[in-house]
Task: structure prediction
Amino acid sequence: MVKNKELVIIEEWCKGCGICVEFCPVKVLEIKNDKVRLIDADKCIKCGICELRCPDFAIYLEVKE
Amino acid sequence: MMATRLMQGNEAVVEGAIAAGLKFYAGYPITPSTEIAELCAEKLPFVGGKFIQMEDEIASMAAVIGASLTGLKAMTATSGPGFSLKQENIGFAAIAEVPCVIADVQRRGPSTGMPTSPAQGDVMQSRWGTHGDHSIIVLSPSSVKEAYYVTIQAFNLSEKYRTPVIILMDEVIGHLREAVNLEEYKDIEIIERTMPQDKENYLPYQHIENGVAPLAPFGKGFRFHVTGLVHNEDGLPTNDPKVAEKLIERLVGKIENNKRDIVMFEEKYTEGGDVLIISFGSSARACEAAIENLKKEGIQAGLFRPIAIWPFPDERLKEIYPKFKKVFVVEMNTGQLYYEVDRIVKGDTYVGKINKFNGEFFTPCEIAEKIKESFKNGI
Amino acid sequence: MASELVEKYFRKETLPNIWCPGCSNGTVTAAIVRAIDNLGLDKDKVCIVSGIGCSSRASGYLDFNTLHTTHGRAIAFATGIKFANPELTVIVITGDGDNAAIGGNHFIHACRRNIDLTVVMYNNHIYGMTGGQYSPTTPRFDRATTAPYGNIDRYFDICKLAIGAGATYVARSTAYHVQQLTKLIEKGISHKGFSFIEALSTCPTYYGRRNKKGSPADMLKWLKDHTVDIKQASKMTAEELNGKFIIGEFLNVEEPEYVEEYEKMIENLRVNYK
Result:
C-alpha cells in the first residue's frame, strides 16, 4: 500500500465505459450518472490498474507532497 | 562567365531546382519525365541532397511533403497517370500549406494514352486535379532556358506562399535539347524559408491577410500539429464553420490576391492587329513561327503567352485583346485554356480554338492555315 | 491537472479525445507514450505520423512534432521525414484499414527498405471512423455493416506480412497486455531498422455491438482469453492454437538500415570522387 498517493478523477474526461470498475481488484469504483466515482477511499490500495486501463486518462494516482 | 551548354528541358529542371536549393527528391519512373529522377539520383548526393525512388507516385508525393516539413526544399516529377495519383496529396500540401514542387511533363492521355507523345491535356488537372476549393500556382515553360528559370521561380513561390507549385511541361520541352547560357540567372534571388522566433506562441497557421506564417521545420522545438483536416491557427483540427470559412478564404486569397506578384507572361506584337494568339509551353513556339508566316499574307498577329497559367494573367489579357479583331487559343488538347480565355473575353471578341490532340506537335503552317481560313471572307 | 504522463506528453487542451466510451485507442496511445517516456527521448526530436481512421487521430493529442496525413499514406510521409532528417525518432500510428488495406503497398516497401521507423498498428478489426465496415483483419464470418451476412474474406496476418516483406523487428501484443505492449514498443523504437508492433485493440461500438462481444471490459477480457504467448505457443498443437492470437516478439534481427546505407554511399562518393 502506498500512502502518499491519491486517486484523482477528471470527470470531464470520463466517458463512463466501466473498464476501471471492472478491473479494480478491490471493487472501490462505480459508475454513477455515466461518470466514475470512488466509493471507498480507505479500501483503495492505490495499485494504479484503473490508470493503466483507462482509455481516457480520466483516473490516475497523484503523488502528494 | 558561364559557358553555353547543350541542355535538355528535363535536365534544365534539375539544374534549376539545384540552383534553387533542392535537397530532396522522391519519385517514380514515368515517361517522359524520368530523366528528372535519373539526374536527381546522380546529382543530389554531391550537393548535400537526397534521392529516393518510392514504391509509387502517391508515396513520392507523400515523401516530398514529409521531407519539406523537416525544412528541406523538395520536389517530385511525373506525367499524366502519375500526376493523377499524386492529386490527393497535392491537396494535402495545399491545406497543410507545405511548400513543394511538382513537375508534370505532359504526354497524350487520358490514361496510358501515348506515353512518348506530347500533349497539353493537364491544364485543368493542374488547376483542379485535387478535390475541394483551393488555389494553386502552375508555371509552363516554352524553352529549355525558361524551364531552368521557371523551376527556380517555382521553388521561390512555393516557399513564399507555402503552397505546392506545379511546373507544367510538355514532352516537347522536356526532351528538347537547346543551347543555353544561364549567365543572366547567376544572381537570381533565391527565397529561403524564414524561421519563426517565438516557440511558445508559435501559430503555424496564423491568420495573415493574403499571406502565410513562417513554417518551422520539424525537430527544432516547435512541436506543432499538421493535418489535412480543417484546423485552427495552431494546426489542431476543428469543425467550427467560422474557422473553416476563414481558412479556405485565406488559402485561396493568398494566391488570388497576390496575382500581380505571381503572374508571368510574355507578349509579342501586342500593340494591336488582326488576331491575338494565346498559347503556352511548346505550342507557343509553333505560334511564333506562324505569326511570321501570317505577316507575309498580310495578317497582323500578336502573341500573348502566359508563363504562369494559373493564376491566369487576366488583367493583362483584358488590356490587350480589345486591340485585336479576333482571338485564337492554340493548345495541344481539345480546348482547356480556351475556357479561361473565353471567360475573360466574355463574348466581346470572337475567341476561336486551334487544337491538336493526335500525339503530334503543331506545325506553324497548320496554325497559320486555320487562322487564314477564318479570314477567308475578308478581315 | 492530469497525470504526470498526460501533463508531460499530451496536448491537454485537446482532451477529452474523440474516441467512443471504452475504445482502447487511448490505452494503446498511452502505451506508446510510456515507451517514449521510459526511453527518455527528447520530445523535440520525436515525430508522430498517422494516417486516417480512429486510431490515426492520436497524433493530434500528442505533444511532439505531429503529422496527420492522408488515408494509408502515413508510412510514405514518415519515410520522407526520416530520410530527410535522420536525427528524428519517427513513430507511425496507423490502423488495420489504414495500414493493411489502403496503405499496404507503402507498408511492404518500408519493411523491404528496413528504414528506421516504428509502426504501431492499432488492430480493432473494423473500420470505426466510417461506422463499422469489414477490414482486412475482420475475422471470417464476423459481421460488419458491409458484411451483414458474415465476412467471407480471409484474415490478413500483418505480422507475417511484415516478416515476409523484410521488417527486422516484428511483435504483437494487445490493449489488455498494456505492460507487455509498452515494452515491445520500447524495443521497437530502440531497434535500428523497420519495427512493426501490432496492438490488438477493441471497438466496442461497431465491432463489439454487431458481434455481441459484450462490454468494453468484456472485450479486453476476450483479448486475454484468446491470446497465447509465443513461448507457450511453441509447445501447443495447431488445434490448441486455433482461434488464438499469438503475442510476443516474432522477429528481432539486424540488417542494413536504409538511411545509413544512403549515408554510406554519400561518404563513399565524397572520398572517391572529390
